[in-house]
Write a structure and sequence with these properties.
It is a single chain. This protein has five helices and two strands. With 103 residues, the chain is mainly alpha-helical. It has one domain (2-94). Strands 1-2 form a two-stranded antiparallel sheet. The two termini are 19 Å apart.
Length: 103
Amino acid sequence: MAQVEIANKMVDVTEEGYLTDPSQWNEDIARAIAEEIGISLTDKHMEVVMFLREKQAQGEALTIRKVGKSGIVDIKGLYKLFPGGPLKFSSKIAGIPKPVSCV
């Protein structure tokens, strides 16, 4: 575990850059992480991010299918919002641990 500064705040992260403590997250951090990945966050991105944070806090396993069935965005739309790794990137932006289903 390492500490890095993201959006003028020191946070604990894994080797891959995932926050280890979701309570350290805020929207400024989300925007900074998204920018690093090359994503410009919209309201739809934030809906997905907040959904993931809520489900992770409830202890639910996160999958692309679960997000697709959320009513926020379908699976195709999720890939469009977070190209190259929809669950991997959306989880990183959400400040939650990398889902087990992500390689």
